[in-house]
Specification:
CATH architecture: 3-Layer(aba) Sandwich
Strand order of the largest sheet: 1-2-3-4-5
Number of strands: 5
Largest sheet: 5 strands, mixed
Shape: globular
Low-confidence stretches: 1-6
Mean pLDDT: 90
Structural class: alpha+beta
């Protein structure tokens, strides 16, 4: 995946912003960048008794619209498969869980915009 390397530092920066956002919102970060043969889960977190898998989509933009547009039907299916793989790998069969998507827009000037959609597979 040589094409993805130039965006990796930018993507990691977006993930760092989101981790801080989540911690400030009362989420516990369980793990970041968990990998398996299917791919990667950006952030695994917990809030109350719910395990939350976070997909972070960062874009150089004035708003988060493009971030969320990139979550198509195929990507949603992959996120669900990754969550199930994590649950199986950690033997968490009885845990309550969901998948959230967080869009990060980083404009040319000004602060980053973070928008959080909970239970994103229900779109």
């Amino acid at each position: 995946m040589a094409n993805s390397k130039p965006t990796q530092p930018f993507g990691r920066y977006g993930e760092q912003l989101v981790a801080k956002y989540l911690e400030n919102g009362g989420f516990q970060i369980v793990e970041t960048n968990w990998r398996c043969s299917l791919g990667e889960i950006d952030i695994v977190s917990r809030k109350a008794n719910i395990l939350i898998f976070i997909e972070v989509r960062s874009r150089h933009a004035e708003n988060t619209e493009a971030s969320f547009e990139s979550i198509n039907k195929r990507k949603r299916a992959k996120l669900a498969a990754l969550a199930n793989e994590y649950i199986d790998a950690h033997q968490l069969d009885n845990v309550e869980w969901r998948i959230d998507v967080i869009g990060v827009a980083i404009p040319r000037s000004g602060k980053a915009i973070i928008e959080h959609v909970e239970d994103a597979l229900g779109w």
